[in-house]
Amino acid sequence: MSETAHEGSGWTSRLPPFIRRMDPAVVTAFACIVVLLLLGSLYSRNFLSLEYLLQQLKVASFLGVIATGMMLVILIGQIDLSVPWVVTTGAMMASFASSFGTAGVILGIPFGILCGVLLGLLNGLGVAYLRIPSMIITLATNAVAQGLMVVYSGGFSPKDTASAPMRYLATGFLIPGLPNAVIVWAIIGALAVFLLARTTFGRSIYGIGNRERAAYLSGINTRRIVMTTFAISGGLAAVGGILLAGYASKAAQSMGDAYLLPSIAAVVLGGTSILGGRGTYLGTVAGVILITLLQSILSVMQMPEAGRQIVYGVVIVAMMLLYGRERLVRQ
Amino acid sequence: MRDWRFWFAEQRGTLLAVAIFVVMFAVYIVNHPAIANNGFTVATLSNVGQTAANKGVLLAFVAMAQALVVITAGIDLSVGMTFTLTNCLASWIVVGDPLSTALGVVGVLAAGALCGAINGAIVIFGRLQPIVTTIATGAIYYGVALLLRPFPGGSVNGDLADLLTGKVFDVFPASLIVLALVVLVVWVPFSRSVTGRAAYAVGSSEVAAYMSGVPVRRAKFVAYTLAGLLASIGGLFLTFFTYTGEAALASGNTYTLFSIAAVVLGGVSLFGGRGSAIGAIFGALAFRTIGDLLFVFNLDPLWQPLFQGVVLMIAVSLGAFGLFRVRNRLEWFG
Fold first, then answer.
1. Residue numbers in A near B304 (CB within 8 A)
2. pLDDT in tens, A154-195
3. Residues B127 and A294: beta-carbon distance below 8 Å
4. Which residues are registered as beta bridge partners of A146?
């Protein structure tokens, strides 16, 4: 019954080993990116220009940072639906702190991230210690974060302009030509790869995703790891929000709404099992780029929003049918 | 005596939802400004009831839809979009003389059922996870809704709308009667049929259900299709209340998320196999009442989202009391 995972071993055995070792999902996702770019270049030559690709990478890095947290949570077999308002909270609180002089500007970004981590901890406490299904506790956290932000921004005139460091982080160029947002994503991505592949914590995440009971019986403190994972996800969502606010140069109430479903879609398109325990970070990178490119190409082609949504949905279903199918029950 | 205890154990979640709703609604009624001013007269009570019912039934239909899918251990994140899509469709076709209005209603219900059937087909035959499938189909349905109504507008048969959102004999909210009828026509036959029992069995353990020869595929397919149908009844009612169709992304997402909250408040287990659509209805009504409580206490509406969030968080945390009964730590992991 495990043959389904390595189907078609006949012709793949002739491929070089490094390709054979790769996850078919990741290969398909990258292949789709290439196909998308080629299709786009038929429409306009600009799609293959370095400028356009870097611009896309910059836009992708917001989703990439958020999807990194989402991936960790999905790997332990849970889901984080609190992303929209944690993103907004991170952005708003970072802007808020920046209104208190120089110290505020310096501490604004850490403060925004701290708020995200706290909300993530709330999720983690509920899931790990109170055993509430993640789908519902993260929903509640989302509602609480929304309530706090509505009260904050309505009660007194909010300071919602992004500070100079936030703008620099999102739109500046530390290395000429390479936007800082991409560097931030690269650093976070490298840390995630290290965390997942080289630390006990990372291996425990995969273990818990496969079977939390077994992980617990092997002496892993599963509750602490689940809680920490949610805290990391909250922190990363806040980082995404801070980058977004820096990019748009202000924090807005509904800025996070557009990131919940794409971040889940990016993770599963990259071959991570929504049930947890299986998936690579490279796949998530592929998923994020794929979704960003798809959205960008459709909007360049001036497809109306309706058509974009339909194509977006059809592509997700079609790609998941290619490689994301579950096993038959009778197996 | 024993039968009674089994029945109680099975219906505990539903009864708890009813209790929460009754308490919340009592607090709401007693503090409502219209009643504080006019006293407990039939006319005021029915007015307050009508407003509350009309707001509540929308979420109740969507929550019922969600409950059917959740019972099979699935989840339908496209339910709010089906609701939006059918709202937009209804604002086109539920118009004109009685015959074309009737045909329009049938068309809207069929469209909803089709949305559900597509979800079901992809989940069953495509073997994709429900959560991923319905995220994608939700985007598709929203796209179609936008095609139908790029801008808010349209109209609906006013007589029918007023009839179904008004009061019967000037006392009882008609929308509640429709809700009860839908329960009688859709939920009761379903839950008592072989297919309905199979849906519960699939939710408890799909493998065990398959091994026991339970019609797994039929149960799931019917559950998803009926969910689409129920969501479309909700969409139809939204059109009756607003007289327009609008492809609003935020409203669709809100209904999806609220439906999950309502289902959980209503005692339906997200792990499947436990709970009932009746519980989900009372969960939805309770959730709506919570949202309106601040209004009757005359507090700043700014605090409403926070209040709703905190109450929701407390309500879902109450489930954690079950942990005190755990004798073996392995039971933590379900």
1. 147
2. 755 566 777 888 888 888 888 887 888 999 999 999 999 999
3. no
4. none
